[in-house]
Amino acid sequence: MKTIRFGIIGAGLMAREFASAAARWCHLSDSPARPEIAGVCDQNPASLGWFKTHFPGVKQYTSDYRELLANKEVDAVYAAVPHNLHEEIYGATIRAGKHLMGEKPFGIDLPANTAILQAIEETPGSFVRCSSQFPFFPAMQRMGGMIEARAFGRILEANTGFLHSSDLDPEKPINWKRMVEFNGEYGVLGDLGMHACHIPFRAGWQALNVRAILSNIITERPDGKGGTAPCKTWDNATLLCEALDPADGFHFPWALKTQRIAPGQKDTWYAEIIGTKACARWSSASPNVLQLLEYTGGEQSYRAVETGYNPAYKTITGPNFEFGFTDAILQMWAAFVNELATGTTPSRFAGCATPAESNLSHRLFTAALESAKTGQTCANNRRQISRSDGRCSSGFSCADPALRLLRPG
């Protein structure tokens, strides 16, 4: 089995989730390659302690990401850093010839995202993806298969979102995600938005315009030093988009929600698709139950389908067991490693979010900011990829098959 040697830049929670997934790679039954942690970088020495304890074989620890990128024993990088550092670190990683899995939103704003995509265009052979794990739950894989098979018929409505309540406590000290200079003006959209966009964008649905309501609910928080600090980022976002399904040319409403202050929610990702032939809805609050309504004549009613353990990438776990968050993390990383090693994915919806999809999210979120500012419905400059030459307005090509999924119909 081929080994892909990873460097980690940003040794926080999600870096530890990745390392944990790498440590139990034997759980996957037929992976063509496996990850190995070769180096870890973080400017806070305390963040490195967990890795030193649990991964004694890691050879490189550093506070300078440039030293990690210069390491010839690093093939690929996982970068999980504040949004204001994405352009610099993602661009440097790509130009250093390393493959990259980067955390959303792939740049603090649209110009930063465009610069990252330009680096991809200028570096042939680079394999780059964006982190988004929730579509790898078996229920969402099944919904993706239904989209691909046109089982929903004409799409009448779609609702997607990501809700949690971690910021409900006004006494919670401020952190970088609540500071506009580090998180960006998107606020909660930059932090959580790709989770809500991944499946719609992979389906090829195009958001033509958007009306956005953005809420800054808690305007100041404790600064951890005995005082308070202004909290300028958006806590909650509700977007209503007019969407186009290129498969049949019909328009439909797509409602998207991302909320940091959602009482009663833990870390809830949800999706609902309503069509003329079938409907489906799922929430990570009940991760192993998919609600399905299929029109067969007579009474219309939803049935609950126990999805079990049926992931896109096979594991040693049998189908009668249940699937959870850490399984979704492992599946996302299996998707990254599998596509890097083989150039393919088992199905259209079994791949990680692409740079092109990150660009679509930036265009939508930029339009959402304008809508919230003006109180108007704003057009979304979504023409990512042209039909004529396979190039997008930000300058990168669609040679990657996953990017070609976004070609307008």
The profile of the biggest β sheet is: 9 strands, mixed
CATH architecture group name of the largest domain: 2-Layer Sandwich
CATH-defined topology of the largest domain: Dihydrodipicolinate Reductase, domain 2
Q: Which class do the helix and strand fractions yield? A: alpha/beta
Q: Gyration radius, to the nearest Å?
A: 21 Å
For CATH, the homologous superfamily of the largest domain is named as: Dihydrodipicolinate Reductase, domain 2
Helix content: 25-40%
User: Order of SSEs, N→C?
Assistant: EHEHEHEHEHEHEHHEEEEEEEEEHHEH
Shape: globular
Distance between the termini: 39 Å
Strand content: 25-35%
- The CATH class of the largest domain, by name, is Alpha Beta
* Mean pLDDT reading: 92
Strand order of the largest sheet: 16-15-14-13-7-12-11-8-17
- Poorly predicted spans: 384-409
Indicate how many domains the architecture comprises: 2
Q: Counting H and I runs of at least 4 residues, what is the number of helices?
A: 11
Strand runs, count: 17
